[in-house]
Amino acid sequence: MSTDFDPRVAGTRRVAGVILALAAIGLGLVVILVHLTLPWIVRGAGVGLVVVGLATAIGVDGAGRSRRWGRVLAGLASAAAGVVVLVWQSASIRSLLWVMVTALVVHGIHTILAALRSETDRRVAGLVGGAAAILFGVLCLVWPVLAIELVKYGVGAWLVFVGLRGLLESLLPPRREDASARGGRGGMRRWGRTILAVVALLVVVALAIGSALLLRGDDRPEPGDFYSATDPLPDEPGVLLRAETLTSGVPAGADAWRILYTTTDPSGGVRVASGAVIAPTDRGQDPLPLLSVAHGTTGIVPRCAPTLSPTPFADGAGTALEQMVTAHGWAGVISDYVGLGTEGPHPYLVGQAEARNVLDASLAARQLDGVTLSTDTVVWGHSQGGHGALWAGQIAGDYAPELTLKGIVGMAPATDLFDLAEASKDEVAGKTVSAYIAQSWNAVYPELDLSGHLNPGTAYGVEEIGDLCFNEKDVIAALIRGSQIPEQVFPDSALDGDLGEALRANSPTGPWPSPVLIAQGTSDPLVKPGMQQGWVDARCAAGEPLDYRTYPGLDHNGLVAADSPLTPQLVSWTLDRWSGEAPTPTC
Q: The domain 233-416+509-579 belongs to what CATH superfamily?
């Protein structure tokens, strides 16, 4: 006779069931209602796994009867996973999540195996529910940060539910099933389990399909033959190698060309970069005023080049650029930067490299047939491009003395890179930018060994983000990947060491040979207004006469949107620089 019906065994098990049930209910309420940090949420889930594992092993979790050996093994696996989560304090959040997901998958497999030996309604419910548990576990690994939030609410609610179910199982007398229970409301109750299991599976499948669509990103092509130069290359930078007509994304009243030209890296080595030139269709023989545009972050791999995009001139203040070309008769040139379009690595936020690419593009554009360009230029840049524009102004006199800079504009520029990294290290956009830096600088500055100094559990996300662009559909996938990096990419020890010094060395500080306009939205979540104000105050104190303008309520991209108040001001400020109007610095 089974010991399940021995009064002494049943009594002991009932007491244990009450204790474990009350523990599960209390723990679940704490996890849901009390504000806890991520490590404590994980620890709470670990205790929950132990409690539910013990309840499952002794058969008081209210889940129904199954083979004792299977029940015991599943319960011990859950309890063991909980112990690992509690003891493995040095593990990353993602590693601990693997342990919890393993327990969830084991539970799903146990449910499926038990269902194969059950009656029809339990079999269908068990198979569907087990499959849902396994697929949900996989999704938790795809969305680790979201999974931690699910640990807080989903696991908390699950603990309360299991506790209440176990409490009823322990306090109520054993239920005897007979033939009459197979029909009527009893039958509907049993098949209700199946309906709920099917609904759960459909929800998880919908989440899986949505995840695949969101994380897929763009299907943009890799660069073609145009972007590959043949040896030997000219020794000097700023030489036009190749040009072809560009038609995609060109506004009415303008002509455009894709160009390939020589430039140099900070060590002096000759490199090849691509870019684009735009000019009014109605143009005479006189030299056109030249606008040199440094584009914002688009990614760090070749397929992320703006000239491969269907909208190559939309980056940053695209509307203002169009007005300058079609309404005021200017020409514009945009560098893709080395490593975007052409062979990498792309030196992301490396000031000297960006500046050389921008200045050499302006020199190469002057060799284009059918367009005559002035040697005077105004430089614009948004975000990463603002960083590049400020650096272009900083080195232009020594590196490209043929050009005369009449003005420099940084729109939400990445200025103090160390403060930028420090202020946004725990945020989604900051993690995404840090991932680009980690991938790019690991090649540009191998002595930093950034791949060996990432926080545990972040390497996979960093690698995935590095292969995604930061425009069009890819930007959604990149930010989602960034949201699923559980911790800051670089530990504080790295930021306080050689990496921090490199960030400071790549922050523009001047002096600048011409008037500088800095524009900043006060609601920018990436380039923080406080960080920008601190940088501006430092430059003003150093004697740099900046024109600093803030725009209330505008975020990072809203600052350069078509309807932004900056748009007409940017056009007016640029025209004033060309006409020789005196600047109006605010410091």
A: Alpha/Beta hydrolase fold, catalytic domain (3.40.50.1820)
**pLDDT band at 1; cut points 50, 70, 90:** very low
DSSP characters over 98-137: HHHHHHHHHHHHHHHHHHTTS-HHHHHHHHHHHHHHHHHH
Q: Please state, in angstroms and as integers, the Cα–Cα distance from residue 210 to each residue in 148, 207, 215, 390, following that order.
A: 19, 5, 9, 41
| Whole-number Å distance between alpha carbons of 529 and 336 | 27
| Residue 221 predicted with pLDDT over 50 | yes
Sign of CA pseudo-dihedral 146, 149, 151, 156: negative
Tokens coding 426:
């725990």
Of 79-88, 253-262, 556-565, which range is least confident?
79-88
Secondary structure class of 85 (helix, strand, coil): helix
Q: Model confidence over 296-338: pLDDT tens digits? A: 999 999 999 999 988 999 888 999 999 999 999 999 999 999 9
Q: How far apart, in whole angstroms, are the C-alpha atoms of residue 481 and residue 556?
A: 20
- Cα 207 off chain centre by: 19
How far, rounded to the nearest angstrom, does the alpha carbon of residue 39 sit from its chain's CA centroid?
Answer: 22
Q: Which residues pair with 260 in a beta bridge?
A: 242, 274
- Whole-angstrom CA distances from 450 to 172, 239, 270, 470, 505 are 60, 34, 26, 21, 17
Nearest alpha carbon to residue 464 among 221, 210, 213, 217 = 217
Contact 294, 283 (CB under 8 A): no
* Separation CA 524–CA 272 (nearest Å): 34
DSSP 450-493: GGGSSPTT-HHHHHHHHTS-SSHHHHHHHHHHHHT--S-SS-HH
Helical H runs in 300-413?
A: 318-326, 351-365, 384-399
Number of helices (H) and strands (E) in the chain: give both, helices first: 19, 9
pLDDT band, very low/low/confident/very high, at 508 (cuts 50, 70, 90): very high
The ranges assigned to domains in the chain are 3-171+188-216, 233-416+509-579, 420-501
The SS3 assignment for 152 reads helix
Element (H, E) at 275: strand 270-280
Return d(Cα 127, Cα 111) in angstroms, integer: 7
The 10 Å Cβ neighbour count of residue 500 is 18
Q: What is the DSSP letter of 441?
A: H
Residue 277 and residue 368 in contact, taking contact as beta carbons nearer than 8 Å: yes
What is the tens place of the pLDDT at every residue in 525-540?
Answer: 889 999 999 999 999 9
Residue 41 has a pLDDT of 75
Q: Dihedral sign, CA of 501, 505, 506, 507?
A: positive
Q: Are strands 288-294 and 331-335 parallel, antiparallel or unpaired?
A: parallel
